[in-house]
Specification:
Shape: elongated
Helix content: 40-55%
CATH class of the largest domain: Alpha Beta
Radius of gyration: 29 Å
Strand content: 5-15%
Number of helices: 19
CATH architecture of the largest domain: 3-Layer(aba) Sandwich
GO molecular function, one term: ATP binding
Number of strands: 16
Protein name: DNA-binding transcriptional response regulator, NtrC family, contains REC, AAA-type ATPase, and a Fis-type DNA-binding domains
Bound molecules: adenosine-5'-triphosphate
Distance between the termini: 31 Å
Structural class: alpha/beta
Keywords: ATP-binding, DNA-binding, Nucleotide-binding, Transcription, Transcription regulation
Organism: Frateuria terrea
Strand order of the largest sheet: 2-1-3-4-5
Domain Sigma-54 factor interaction: 138-367
Amino acid sequence: MVVAMALPRRCVVWFGRPAGAERDELEHSGWPVRVADVQASGVGARNGDVVVALADLRQGDDATLQAMEGMVAEHPGVPWIALVSPETPAHEPRVTSILRDCMAVFTSPIDLPRLRDALDRLGQGGVPARSKPDMPGLVGSSQAMQALRTSLRKYAPVDLPVLITGETGTGKEVAARAVHQLSPRAGRPFVAINCGALPSNLVQSELFGHERGAFTGATTRRIGHIESACGGTVFLDEIGDLPLDAQTNLLRFLQEGTIVRVGSSQSLRADVRVLAATHVDMEKAVAAGRFRQDLYYRLNVLRVQIPALREREGDVELLAQHFLDGFREHHDCHARAFNVAARRALREFPWPGNVRELVNRVQRAAVVADDTLIGVGDLDLPVRPGRSPVAGLDRARVSAERDALVACLRETRFNVSECARRLGIARVTVYRLCKKHGLALDELAQAAR
Ligand SMILES: Nc1ncnc2c1ncn2[C@@H]1O[C@H](COP(=O)(O)OP(=O)(O)OP(=O)(O)O)[C@@H](O)[C@H]1O
């Protein structure tokens, strides 16, 4: 039987069985608890209610897990928190799927003050606090990112060039900045140069500087980027685009530690560490004669590959929330977090433009979202029906339920009481099922006339 619950405006709907102390603690801190049965109850929230749903996975058989999975999927607009025990089979697909859609997970014995804090944050439209990144600017807790951090930490103190490779927008410059920050050069300048954006006739002068009168228009002496990074680090982005003559001078600098300004014959010592990045295949560029092999060897002493965003399990949501929080610090917007469907879409999208594309989509969504939870439409991401958590048998079951309901409604000429009697369910269940399947009774009845 379905229980239609009249909720207070602020409430925890607890699917499962809270211990007395757990319930008391929440009620005393202003969070009335409504205990709900996942097999028979809905969330029951009205517009404007502040409701947080708790998926209590500490007890429960497979049928409960299945119903819980469906319940979470059916209520994408509600923030969910999961409670698990050390015995909860976290590797089982149903549990994994539920946990993924929850904004926070607490393991028993539940730390009640932390749970209360999480509820307060969600109640204000925020998300539970997350741990700060342990490397400057580099957010992500996936295995791929942990391995990357380990390499960057190892390479930072060694005063050798690092070649950073990876697809566009993966965070090569962020990684270069982290190396600089973690190195003994941290207090000195970090100068980033996009080699692909330098005008070809000015590359040498931009990198190494020029003397007055070195060429038409050189009315004053100019210090180049490498010299201006003195004592610090220079980051040469898109190194594969560096013209061959500039490659020769860069090689000399790497071998001898000296530069020569354009129009001068004097060598100047420059204490600068070089980090370089590329998204092109440097071996191919060398084979094609576009890049000097000796320079490639010099730059490629230490090498890190930044993983594509699609290879970082679990990081997309973390990054998306990070960018949303950052956006909110400087702009007024309603959005505080992402609903279940949006988080699923974030996980499933292949992100060809990597983290940069994610930044752009999140910022756009933060501007257009009218709700506190960003939806799939706000992110302008496709919904992939084939990847719904209600997959396979479950989807077949849902679709059979819908078909049976529509057929019975038609047979009974949309008489809800008669339809309920024939299906052997309560009238309220007919209404609940119509809502669940997105069926507007009035419109259906009208269309059938
Ligand atoms: N791990 C990360 N944590 C936080 N922000 C990140 C991370 N990785 C990338 N970003 C952000 O994503 C955007 C793109 O990063 P970045 O410019 O470092 O990428 P890139 O690989 O150097 O790009 P390109 O190939 O175009 O030079 C930046 O806004 C950066 O701050």
